[in-house]
Task: inverse folding
């Protein structure tokens, strides 16, 4: 005999579809909201996380990557001379204005790096190369922003901050948290586009000799100059992420949306599972009258919950993958790492079992004499 | 005299408290013997179903004693009552109370499952019980596709799954036409007379009077004497269709 739990779920296909829809909706909602949070969160620090640097030297108290203040590039030389430093390079990250083909301006974030160093450059290059950026006025943008920046082809000449620029390559998937696209170029060009003086830099990126203790190297570099701050890449990433996610309305909105997604998801699942149990309340009363122990009935209800969770999760996973893929061409980046998928399985189980516990409480208090009421 | 299957002594059941208290049963005494069909009759609200619930160990009496095969059960803690029901009592309900998501055979197998009888043995016994109630051809049919009479016969098969010595039926013919009702009541009588079960039927249906061995009237929660110690008839004597002993209020 198929179990009562199985039959209760699957006998009425329409009812089951409604139940499943509720659970799938809840799980997809949670995945999308958390994925959005992760997507935004990751986008805020993408340039830092992909920099390949071990340490970042920036202006004092710089709160996040986009607001570094300029300082003398001469600070680079003592850094290079510090034991444990394999290489160090000047780096620009700063706002500028991109003039589109129709004459309007679009805010961009200039990322100026040394193309001869493996630090701070673009990744996921789908057209052109880092070497091509060595050409005068060469820049690289992400395909996602081609339309926004009105770039139709490689080699297109544009204007940044009143200076000539030429698109020599495209990346794919490098999105910024703000609405301003990243524009990768050489450090020298970056100085020009960001209106820096020739002797100024915004950051110094440091790569340590393999095996060097990073914390100790950080302390040595910090001791060199009191006018700058030294961060490990992880620290600077956390600092930037914290700024965008917790001190701006945008980040909090995304975070709240993720939390709301979780709450709404839990409520929908709870309501759905509760309703499923209530649908069979009279049958549980009959079971009690027949002599079933509470434990027997709990097993039926919990089995229903686990079956609902597993099936709902499987369907939700497929739907979520489609939603995430669909979002790749849209404005919002939804990240769906496998860890989130794994965690969601347990969240789905917990939601369904938790909701069933609420209905178990109702069944526990069920008067078996109800079976005699017509 | 043999030990009655059910012995109710001085049972009182009060619902609610204070001014809102309702005395549903008031000092009820009743014995039901093995092999006997007792018809419990009375107007609506007289306490029939409450008495059935107390006898079925579904409700605790407020006062008094209930013995099942000589064992005092009225003082048992709540958690032990399901086992008493499972081992001693089969219920047949007015609304059938079949599980709509299970076939006729599975409904019976579910009752067997409660007694840890599973797999082939459960299938064999479910088939045998449905054969007993004349539904061999309806094993795989869902309740929604059965007639009222067939549903009640499945319910009887289910009630018998745990091999209980007591069958309590609440208005088992109320939702049935007379032909179906007669089939059901004959089946219950057969259970008592041929298989020695104690059968208690709560009913309003006067057409089934001839099928009872004893009629007990209850009114305002009271049963007049002599409902206790009524003669326990030998099954052979009961199959003759003798005029039932009627106790009227």
Result:
């Amino acid at each position: 005999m198929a179990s009562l739990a199985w039959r209760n779920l699957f006998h009425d296909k329409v009812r089951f579809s409604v139940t499943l829809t509720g659970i799938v909706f809840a799980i997809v909602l949670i995945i999308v909201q958390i994925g959005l949070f992760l997507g935004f969160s990751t986008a805020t620090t993408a340039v830092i996380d992909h920099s390949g640097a071990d340490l970042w030297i920036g202006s004092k108290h710089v709160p996040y990557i986009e607001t570094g203040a300029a300082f003398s590039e001469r600070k680079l030389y003592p850094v290079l001379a510090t034991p444990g430093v394999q290489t160090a390079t000047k780096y620009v990250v700063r706002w500028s204005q991109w003039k589109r083909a129709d004459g309007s301006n679009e805010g961009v974030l200039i990322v100026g790096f040394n193309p001869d160093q493996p630090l701070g450059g673009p990744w996921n290059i789908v057209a052109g190369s880092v070497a091509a950026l060595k050409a005068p006025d060469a820049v690289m943008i992400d395909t996602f922003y081609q339309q926004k920046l009105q770039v139709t082809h490689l080699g297109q000449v544009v204007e940044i901050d009143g200076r000539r620029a030429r698109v020599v390559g495209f990346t794919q998937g490098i999105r910024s948290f703000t609405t301003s696209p990243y524009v990768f170029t050489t450090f020298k060009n970056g100085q020009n586009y960001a209106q820096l003086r020739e002797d100024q830099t915004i950051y110094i990126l440091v790569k340590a000799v393999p095996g060097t203790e990073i914390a100790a190297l950080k302390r040595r570099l910090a001791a060199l100059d009191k006018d700058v701050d030294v961060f490990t890449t992880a620290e600077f990433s956390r600092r930037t992420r914290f700024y965008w996610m917790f001190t701006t309305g945008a980040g909090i909105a995304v975070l709240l949306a993720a939390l709301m997604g979780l709450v709404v998801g839990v409520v929908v699942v709870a309501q759905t599972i509760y309703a499923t149990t209530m649908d069979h309340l009279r049958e549980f009363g009959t079971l009690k009258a027949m002599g079933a122990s509470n434990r027997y009935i709990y097993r039926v209800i919990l089995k229903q919950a686990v079956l609902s969770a597993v099936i709902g999760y499987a369907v939700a996973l497929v739907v979520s993958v489609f939603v995430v893929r669909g979002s790749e061409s849209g404005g919002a980046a939804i990240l769906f790492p496998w860890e989130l998928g794994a965690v969601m399985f347990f969240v789905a189980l917990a939601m369904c079992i938790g909701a069933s516990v609420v209905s178990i409480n109702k069944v526990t208090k069920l008067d078996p004499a109800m079976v005699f009421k017509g | 005299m043999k030990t009655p299957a059910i012995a109710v002594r001085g049972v009182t059941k009060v619902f609610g408290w204070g001014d809102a208290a309702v005395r549903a049963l008031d000092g009820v005494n009743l014995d039901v013997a093995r092999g006997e069909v007792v018809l419990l009759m009375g107007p609506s609200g007289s306490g029939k179903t409450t008495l059935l619930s107390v006898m079925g160990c579904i409700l605790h009496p407020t006062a008094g004693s209930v013995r099942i095969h000589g064992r005092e059960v009225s003082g048992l803690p709540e958690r032990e009552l399901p086992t008493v029901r499972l081992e001693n009592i089969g219920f047949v309900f007015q609304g059938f109370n079949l599980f709509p998501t299970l076939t006729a055979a599975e409904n019976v197998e579910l009752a067997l499952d409660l007694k840890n009888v599973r797999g082939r043995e459960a299938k064999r016994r479910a088939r045998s019980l449905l054969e007993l109630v004349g539904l061999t051809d309806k094993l795989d049919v869902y309740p929604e596709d059965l007639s009222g009479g067939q549903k009640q016969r499945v319910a009887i098969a289910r009630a018998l799954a745990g091999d209980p010595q007591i069958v309590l039926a609440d208005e088992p013919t109320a939702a049935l036409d007379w032909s179906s009702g007669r089939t059901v009541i004959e089946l219950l009588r057969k259970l008592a007379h041929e298989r020695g079960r104690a059968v208690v039927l709560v009913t309003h249906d006067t057409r089934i009077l001839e099928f009872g061995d004893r009629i007990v009237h209850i009114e305002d929660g009271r049963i007049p004497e002599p409902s206790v110690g009524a003669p326990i008839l030998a099954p052979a004597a009961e199959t003759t269709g003798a005029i039932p002993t009627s106790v009227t209020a």
Residues 229-249 of chain B have pLDDT under 50 and may be disordered. The longest strand of chain B covers residues 22-32.
